[in-house]
TrEMBL record:
Residues 1-46 are annotated as: Disordered. Residues 1-10 have a biased composition (Polar residues). ATP binds at G63, K64, G65, G66, V67, G68, K69, S70. Homodimer. Residues 23-34 have a biased composition (Low complexity). This is Iron-sulfur cluster carrier protein. Binds and transfers iron-sulfur (Fe-S) clusters to target apoproteins. Can hydrolyze ATP. GO terms for biological process: iron-sulfur cluster assembly. Belongs to the Mrp/NBP35 ATP-binding proteins family. It comes from Methanocella arvoryzae (strain DSM 22066 / NBRC 105507 / MRE50). InterPro entries: Mrp-like_CS (IPR000808), Mrp/NBP35_ATP-bd (IPR019591), NUBPL-like (IPR044304), P-loop_NTPase (IPR027417), YlxH/NBP35 (IPR033756). CDD domains: Mrp_NBP35. It holds the Pfam family ParA.
């Protein structure tokens, strides 16, 4: 990441952390002393224990909603599983849980065993936890305030029996609000992957995500541009929907990696399961991108 960019707003100083009087919950506060930061809260210890057999944890984030973050997460999970990896997906987008639809698990209900909450496995063997599994019907809204949603996601991590996984992909809510930031601070991540389209507004919000990640010391593995082009049905020409890639320009500006781009798939219905055999434009484009993300996660371990 470029060190020259210094337009990050730092968090306001927290006096109790600065004086060393904060509780162990303050360990991730930017104002905490080195000793405070070394202290681990009970929750953090539970998270570490639960994820001890998960080799890589990667969060998929976006500055804006609707840019394809869940589609990218689900297709990355499919691609990694096709590479023979053991994959789990934590759908941390509590108010807009789409992962069960994309991975063919609509209508399923969460069950618990002596080991904790049991993730539901899709037909590719991908283990999924989502708030959708606790809703009565898929059109029931999750009318919970932010802190309750964050607590639910934390519980999904502390209470789930993930078992051995090569990759846990975490689909975060969009933006730089309390929920994505809390999850990024609580779960020890290899890094985040940022998804954006090349629309001006979407790219604008990506800068905020990059600066947030920098502030809370979470590595950015790179950027993926979604719906970047359409393949002309009659020739090889790529029709770039938003003109020249602004996501690539932004990656260069911040000294970040452009991991890849995914075309707009006119056949993607959005409500149906992504084809489990991977035969779709989106999953085909995702395969080399998933391999790159896997390599990057290995490097950042
Ligand atoms: N490459 C693509 N080609 C065609 N349609 C796509 C593509 N990527 C995403 N979509 C469609 O765009 C819509 C938004 O995608 P998705 O739900 O994955 O976005 P999101 O960023 O996770 O949204 P939110 O943050 O609001 O949950 C969906 O209808 C999805 O099917």
């Amino acid at each position: 990441m470029s060190d020259t960019n210094d337009n990050t707003l730092s968090a306001p100083e927290c006096s109790s952390c600065k004086d060393g009087k904060g509780s162990s919950k303050c360990a991730s506060c930017p104002s905490a002393s080195p000793e405070m930061r070394a202290k681990k809260s009970e929750t953090e210890q539970q998270i570490e224990q639960r994820l001890s057999k998960v080799k890589h944890r990667i969060a998929i984030v976006s500055g804006k909603g609707g840019v394809g973050k869940s589609t990218v997460t689900a297709s990355m999970a499919l691609s990694l599983s096709m590479l023979g990896k053991k994959v789990g997906v934590l759908d941390a987008d509590v108010s807009g849980p789409n992962i069960p639809h994309l991975l063919g698990l609509e209508g399923r209900k969460l069950e618990a065993s002596m080991e904790g909450l049991e993730p539901i496995m899709n037909r590719n063997g991908i283990k999924v936890i989502s708030s959708e599994f606790v809703l009565t019907t898929s059109d029931t809204p999750m009318l919970w305030r932010g802190p309750m949603r964050t607590t639910l996601v934390t519980q999904f991590v502390t209470d789930t029996n993930w078992g051995e996984l090569d990759y846990l992909l975490i689909d975060l809510p969009p933006g730089t609000g309390d929920e994505p930031m809390s999850v990024m601070q609580q779960i020890p991540l290899d890094g985040i992957v940022i998804v954006s389209t090349s629309s001006n507004l979407s790219v604008l919000d990506v800068s905020k995500i990059i600066n947030m990640a920098k502030t809370i010391n979470v590595p950015v593995l790179g950027l993926i541009e979604n719906m970047s082009y359409m393949q002309c049905p009659d020739c090889d020409r790529k029709i770039r929907l938003f003109g020249e890639s602004k996501v690539e320009r932004l990656a260069k500006q911040y000294g970040l990696r452009m991991i890849g781009e995914i075309p707009l798939d006119p056949l993607n219905s959005g409500v149906d399961e992504l084809p489990a055999d991977g035969r779709s434009l989106i999953v085909t484009a995702m395969k080399p991108i998933a391999q790159r993300v896997a390599d990057l996660a290995e490097k950042h371990k």
